[in-house]
Amino acid sequence: MKIEKISNRVLLACVALIVVCFAAFFCIGYDNPVGDNNEPKLTNIIMWLMYALILVTAGLVVWSAIRGMQNSKGVDPAAITGVPAGKITLFTAGLTIVSLILGWICGIGEKEFTASDGTVTSAGWVTVVDVFMVSMGILLVAAAIAVAVSMTGIFTKSASK
Fold first, then answer.
1. Is the pTM of this model over 0.70?
2. Disulfide engineering: 135 pairs with which of 16, 51, 103, 118, CB 3.0-4.6 Å?
3. What is the dihedral of CA 89, 93, 98, 101, to 10 degrees?
4. pLDDT, tens digit (0-9, with 9 covering 90-100), for 22-34
């Protein structure tokens, strides 16, 4: 089976799983008032879905990196495809580190958070949440720009000339 077919089937399976989980979340016990708040019954299914997707993605990234290194021993992929993979990898790692630092700077001085049920979250954990929220925003914008650039084919056209 070709890699494109496998990739397409895995993508469709992931989308189907996500749609089923979110449909269950919103259709089964979504309106569950607890005090002044709404506490959906299937919140855990969404959290476990995200944990599973992160673990699978991390595993596939590591597997892909190892496979890529094994397959390109002594060969410069940029000479074949025109895509400077090494520079893109360094830029991505650098951008991730910079986004985390910017998130940390934005989160400095946060105060502890008290939820309506009285649960208190320490200022340190509020800062951690800020770090990841800012980082996700920056990386989301970067990913959207990367997809737009990739769709234009700027980098691949240079290899065919």
1. no
2. 103
3. 170
4. 999 999 988 888 7
24: tokens are: 């269950």
Contact criterion met (CB below 8 Å) for 35 and 116: yes
N- to C-terminal Cα distance for the chain?
32
- Average pLDDT of the chain? 84
The rounded radius of gyration (Å) of the Cα atoms in the chain is 21
Q: How many CA atoms lie within 13 A of 15 on its CB side?
A: 6
From residue 8, give the alpha-carbon distance in Å to each of 1, 3, 11, 95.
11, 8, 5, 29
d(CA 136, CA 134): 5
